[in-house]
Write a structure and sequence with these properties.
The chain is α/β, with parallel strands linked by helices. The chain has helices at 3-8, 14-20, 26-37, 43-47, 169-180, 188-198, 223-237, 256-265, 280-286, 288-293, 296-310, 334-349, 376-392, 409-412, and strands at 39-41, 76-77, 83-84, 96-101, 104-109, 112-116, 118-119, 140-143, 146-149, 207-211, 247-250, 271-272, 315-321, 354-359. Helix content is 34%, strand content 14%. Helix 12 links the parallel strand 13 and strand 14. The longest helix has 17 residues, at 376-392. The model is unreliable at 1-12 (pLDDT under 50).
């Protein structure tokens, strides 16, 4: 299906799309479309929000589609137990609406109820304060089954204006610091303190996750970033009885010696380095800082090198899917974009690197903020394609699955069948 053809189909109708892809569960299609179109929280939905019981919008290093920081639900849970990482979106952009129905929160589309949802429950440590006086929830945040550490809320690719075209990390840093009392850079000791407090809620969390903006400094580029992550992960590791603990880090594409340090000196068990778009020309255009400091081919090489350190199925890369179709230089046809992306993803998969994607959310103030993301059909086809590659090359994705992340429609499909039975 071409880009133009997809735009003519009623892709917002999840039942219609479901008939085209009967192998994809309805809730995965719904989740993908909610991420694609965003949500608006009606007054009725906000009446159901209890800030003592539910998580409210907090410590993201990226902003919302409507550019606001406000007391809204952090995100939503579906009845199959999976999460939707939602983005509050202006009504004029035709988002799904969260509102009340018989005293419960529901998703509505064009005034019709589509699916009942729940708000994320707040963990116990959210009501406590760290040793510096900062609320613990602003030091380590949570998804339903994951602890999130965002230690550095800046990316040094922006020092010369070469940050990624879809990124609003700088503007969100300014908002978060002023409005939410979120430190720009976290103290590793205090991070460890909060992790220890969070783990008192036994059985609640399945993994620890760490990511931040790139730090180019050091004797070799990115040594400072590696040193900082090691310091944090060592403090986190003090709260586990085993040398290794369930964990994922999204970092820059590090050299092999740096990767070996991360693995040998910490409890880290998986590594992700987001290439953002699988096409060299688009990468150079949309990620100029990454292109300047590392380059597309070298980024891919370092991902493959990481497999030697962490092992097959423990290394992946992420895409901000939809940016490859945006702007005057994007792919003109969805078929072309899909073919290019899956071809490059297969090149990585055969070498032990998995590819996952998030649905691009155009944010105000970014270079791509005025463009639209792709059709629902495109995202479902991409999810099916990436899942098929993991089956073909026997790549588990447990460290970035629907339990541990919840932000990847393609990894939601990993729960459908054992990878090795296909």
């Amino acid at each position: 299906m071409s880009f133009a053809q997809a735009r003519k189909t009623p892709v917002s109708n999840i039942e219609e799309v479901g008939r085209r892809y009967p192998d994809v569960p309805r809730l995965v299609i719904l989740k993908t479309d909610v991420q694609r179109r965003g949500v608006h929280y009606a007054d009725g939905a906000l009446e159901l929000l209890n800030e003592e019981l539910h998580q409210t919008t907090g410590t993201h290093i990226f902003g919302a589609r409507d550019g606001k920081i406000a007391a809204r639900p952090e995100s939503l849970l579906l009845r199959d137990g999976t999460s939707i990482i939602t983005t509050p979106t202006p009504l004029e952009e035709n988002p799904y609406v969260v509102d009340q129905l018989n005293g419960e929160a529901w998703l509505f589309d064009n005034g019709l109820p589509v699916e009942q949802v729940d708000y994320w429950p707040a963990p116990a440590y959210y009501g406590k304060t760290g040793s510096s006086g900062v609320p613990m929830k602003n030091i380590v945040s949570a998804r339903p089954q994951r602890l999130n550490i965002f230690p550095y809320r800046y990316c040094t690719f922006w020092n010369n204006g070469k940050g990624c075209a879809f990124c609003d990390i700088v503007s969100q840093l300014k908002k978060g610091g002023k409005e939410l009392n979120i430190p720009a850079k976290l103290d590793p000791v205090e991070v460890g303190e909060v992790i220890g407090e969070a783990l008192k809620e036994q059985g609640r969390f399945s993994t620890v996750f760490l990511t931040s903006g790139s730090i180019v400094g050091g004797a070799r580029p990115f040594d400072d970033e590696v040193d900082y992550y090691i310091a944090i992960l060592k403090e986190v590791g003090k709260h586990f009885r085993t040398p290794k603990f369930p964990s994922q880090m999204i970092g820059t594409a590090f050299e092999k010696a740096q990767l070996k340090r991360l693995y040998a000196e910490t409890g880290l068990t998986s590594y992700t380095s987001d290439i953002e778009v699988l096409d060299e020309e688009q990468f150079n255009r949309l990620c100029p800082g990454k292109a300047e400091w590392i380059g597309y081919k070298e980024w891919k090489k370092r991902l493959v090198d990481a497999v030697d350190v962490f092992g097959p199925g423990r290394v992946n890369t992420g895409l901000v899917s939809g940016i490859e179709l945006a702007g005057p230089h994007g792919f003109r046809e969805e078929d072309e974009a899909l073919a290019r992306t899956l071809s490059e993803a297969e090149d990585l998969a055969r070498q032990g690197v998995s590819t996952v994607f998030i649905v691009w959310s155009p944010r105000p103030g970014t270079l791509l903020g005025n463009y639209k993301n792709a059709s629902l059909d495109y995202y479902i086809r991409l999810a099916r394609g990436l899942h098929a590659l993991r089956i073909k090359y026997r790549l588990p994705i447990d460290h970035d699955s629907y339990r541990n992340c919840g932000n990847h429609p393609d990894t939601d499909l990993s729960r459908l069948l054992p990878l090795w039975e296909a």
